[in-house]
Amino acid sequence: MRIVLIGPPGAGKGTQAVALAAHYGVPHVASGDILRFAVAWKTEIGLRAKEYMDAGELVPDEIVLELLKIRLEQSDAREGFVVDGFPRTLPQAEELDRILGEIAHAIDVVVNFEVPDELIVLRLSQRASCPTCGRTYNLLASPPRSDYQCDNDGTPLFQRDDDRPEVIANRLAVFHRQTRPLIRYYEDRSMLVHIDGAGDPEEVFERIVKEIECKQGEGK
Ligand code: AMP
């Protein structure tokens, strides 16, 4: 199963990607996490990516593509994956098709999360993240069990620099300008399903699995 999740930041892609990866028994590949690791490790790529990430801009395609190609070619991703946060531009989508074409595979479904901008701003400003495992919490709707510590590993949670209000507005603008055109790209290829991303994570998960099953039924 090869699933791609697209949608604005804060749409719930990360949360759903973890659940879908467990459900289908495939790895979860998050471009944002890969980039944040590169930044944390102060690699050459990380140092180049950081300024874009801090400003809420997209990291240049060639940097992202270099990292994602390496990740998707690893053996655990050969039989499938759930990719979240990639592709985010048309050249990235075209390159992903090319990479998969080389190993004679195609994406099964692209899930487009629809969430109004007002809800995104609210969610991101209440989001706390774990620097160790990447799990995210909504401090009001789904807080950690113990104050500001990750339920998985006890690490103190933090607010991502790019979840600050002034950066959120730019990330949304970047999404509408650079990532929205992908909806048309995948619609034209009959690969897209639309999901209402508002509501409980469990509810959204049920909606996605149902849509994926319908899509697979159509292909038979
Ligand atoms: P995310 O965790 O998916 O919200 O990504 C955090 C930041 O990483 C984004 O705001 C971008 O700066 C960068 N990023 C993640 N994925 C991509 C991508 N596919 N293309 C360009 N930049 C990306």
Attribute tags:
two-stranded antiparallel sheet, five-stranded parallel sheet, 220 residues, binds adenosine monophosphate, Rossmann fold, 7 strands, globular, single chain, 50% helix, alpha/beta
Rg from alpha-carbon coordinates: 17 Å
Helix content: 40-55%
CATH superfamily: P-loop containing nucleotide triphosphate hydrolases
Shape: globular
> What amount of the residues lies in strands?
5-15%
Average of per-residue pLDDT values: 93
Whole-number total of structural domains: 1
Q: What's the main sheet like? A: 5 strands, parallel
Total strand segments: 7
**What is the first-to-last residue Cα distance?**
15 Å
Question: Which class in CATH terms?
Answer: Alpha Beta
Quickly give the structural class. Answer: alpha/beta
Sketch the topology as an H/E string, one letter per element.
EHEHHHEHEHEEHHEH
Number of helices: 9
Uncertain spans: none
Q: Could you say what the CATH topology is called?
A: Rossmann fold
| Heteromolecules bound | adenosine monophosphate
* Assigned CATH architecture: 3-Layer(aba) Sandwich
Strand order of the largest sheet: 2-3-1-4-7
